[in-house]
Predict the 3D structure of the following.
Amino acid sequence: MSTLNGDDGSGTANAGPVLSIIVTCYNTRDVVRDCLNSINQHPPNETYEIILVDDASSDGTSEMVQATFSEVRLLRNKTNMNYSYSNNRALEHARGQFVLLLNNDTLVPPLALDCMISFLRNCPDAGVVGCKLLNDDGTIQPSVKSLPNPAAALFGARSIVSRLFPNNRFTRRHLLHIDRDMTQPFVAGFVSGAAAMMPLAVVKKVGYLDQQFFYHVDADYCKRVSEAGYNCYYLPTASIVHLNHKGGTMASLPVRFRSLMKFERDSYRYYRKHIQTASWSPMQIVVAVGLSFHFLALASAQVFAEVAATVRPSPQTGVSIGARTNDN
């Protein structure tokens, strides 16, 4: 259970918690329950609070939190807003020296939060620190990268080239975990917002998340942190399990395709905000056309993956998954 006004050992009560953990959600009751249970099972040794923003869920998420996790500070949006809006709302209520933006589809192992707090305390130039994100099978997710640039379309985590040839030298320049010493922290372009911790003082200086972004909101924030004179660090000795997309954001085929469109849209927004800031340049057309072709390539790959998933045989029955679904 979170402790908000603990004793620091000298008999003086602290004004607030050391860490504010911020979780946002939308119709992910069971996933949220697992996330909050993992925090309670493996809490930091420091005082902390949990702020959960329910983005107008209709599946009983808020009721579950109120009944099971009474220590959580619950905020409810009246309508479904977006990731950045909900996190910004929680940041307005955060009282910790440090704040952790944590996706609801994560599981927190022992010591992960303590390692991140300790790093920020001992590294005054750090504006953001991210940890190693793991899939549920223990493999490493590409969660630390160079800042977005035109080459990322060809060699980023989503590119076909990187999927087929993950160790090529161009992909290694963008996906920074591939060629690094994973026992030491290092400066990165940006780290995933699935689990990013910042000093609250830095947040107050840099400002809140840019609500125009859905994708690239973490890259945008780390870019702004860098412009404010701080570094963005990756701490591979701290790990959090990220059950990627089990938070419900990719639950249906139309949503997955809309996601691809949002990714390209926000890529262009990032380009206009941070790379081509002139009011007009011919490169704007070039980039827009390039992103359109990039979308077509990703969409084609998605169609192929969807069809393959529908017709592949079931390991147990030898019957295609698509046929079994139709029987239901």
In short: The mean pLDDT is 82.
